[in-house]
Amino acid sequence: MKEICDGEKERILKILALLEKHYPNATTALRYENPFQLMVATILSAQCTDKRVNQVTERLFKKYKGPEDFATAEPRGLEEEIKECGLFRNKSKNIIEASRIILEKYGGRVPDEFEELIKLPGVGRKTANVILANAFGKPAFAVDTHVFRVARRLGISDGKDPLKVEEDLTSKVPKEYWIKAHHWLINHGRRICTARKPNCENCFLKDFCRFYESRS
């Protein structure tokens, strides 16, 4: 872990305390019943809202029960089922291939190790970290567009890409907070620190925010 000064540690802990106070029940918005369903839902969520994904998976998981059904799915049929999520051809291909690998290599169970997860088609760093944290309760910090934006605005990271932001977050935020902080930052990004018109004046973090400082 990178060494950070005591003042910065204190600032980050105050930010985390405020986030926890305002979003005490924050969790993933994706609906799932097991690690495999979460994997499919997270793959579908690329460039798509969680609300839309949940609408699609509500019917999808009734028809396709598990990796066996997805592995033997007819590509065009699956494409039609997930069309509303966008990028449906690529997502369909990845889900079918990932399901086959899970059956053949992992006995039908989604692996719970990062290095194994990212070998699956359609599973990048963000998706792997989402699965580890939410399905297996393992400390991981997934960086989506909200986490990326809020972490940079708060000055926790100045990373130009998600990997750098992830490195900064995991080095500066205590490990026991990683899973919860991911959800707190997402909630804050959706409700207050929005991309186009952040509600800075009514933000409970403005006293700790580098972005707000720069605008004042």
Q: What pattern of helices and strands is seen along the backbone?
A: HHHHHHHHHHHH
Mean pLDDT: 96
CATH superfamily membership of the largest domain: Hypothetical protein, domain 2
Spans of at least 5 consecutive residues whose pLDDT stays below 50 are none
From the spread of the alpha carbons, the general shape counts as elongated
Number of domains: 2
So how many helices? Answer: 12
Main sheet: strands, sense, barrel: none
**End-to-end separation:** 33 Å
CATH-derived architecture of the largest domain: Orthogonal Bundle
- Tell me roughly what share of residues is in helical segments: 55-70%
Question: Quick one: CATH class of the largest domain?
Answer: Mainly Alpha
* Strand percentage: under 5%
Please characterize this protein's 3D structure.
This protein is mostly helical and 216 residues long. It has 2 domains: 6-26 and 141-215, Endonuclease Iii, domain 2; 35-136, Endonuclease III, domain 1, CATH 1.10.340. The protein is 60% helix and 0% strand. The protein has 12 helices and no strands. It has helices spanning 6-22, 35-44, 50-63, 67-71, 75-82, 88-106, 114-117, 125-136, 145-154, 162-172, 178-191, 210-215. α2 runs antiparallel to α8 (125-136) and α9 (145-154) packs across α11. It starts with 5 loop residues before the first helix and ends with a helix. The relative contact order is 0.13. The model has no long low-confidence stretch (mean pLDDT 96).
List keywords for this structure.
about 220 residues; mainly alpha; Endonuclease Iii, domain 2; Endonuclease III, domain 1; 2 domains; 12 helices
